[in-house]
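Same chain as my last thread, 221 residues:
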Amino acid sequence: MEDKDVFAYVDHTLLLPQSAWQDIRQLCDDAVAFGTASVCIPPCHVRQAKEYLDGKMPVCTVIGFPNGYNSTASKVFEAQDALRNGADELDMVINIGALKSGARGYVLDEIRAVKGACGTHILKVIVESCLLTEEEKLAVCRIVTESGADFIKTSTGFSTGGATFADVELFAAQVGRDVRVKAAGGIASFEDAKKFIALGASRLGTSRIVKLAKQEQAGGY
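reply #2:
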């Protein structure tokens, strides 16, 4: 795989709380220029970004982000609101505390509720794997598979760690055949991106890949 092939896997991401519209607009411009899979942006910018992109790029946003401890009703409302504003894909954070408490039925029901609000739109389920034990990682693979969600996603990028090669390999092996894997958080090089893809990731949540490419262009490479 060449470096240019990586962009098709990238959800070009900007979720910092200080992100202003001019930052989001630049993110959108760069995503279109490099042909990424989507832009992943805060919910408050979805409508404006959707209008600005005018069909050139799917818009992804986040639900229950970054901690996941919102109520189920709140997450469903967030999903519905994001879709009304034009979001094409949603990345939701599970209730990590519920999973760790053993309330797996609650986690499953919540994902199903958000997926019900999504309809045919893509739903990626963020499980914050850096906070989970190995047994919890296996359990959440089963839960996401049973929920009908489209992706399991490693991380928010706002906790104690991001994607690891071991977790992506584990998730790819353990989820059902209809569930894809998104690696997110800390993907800092094309080499790492390619390894995540080789291990089974179908999407990469990162801002650094496009930044690296722009730096190479600026340097004349």
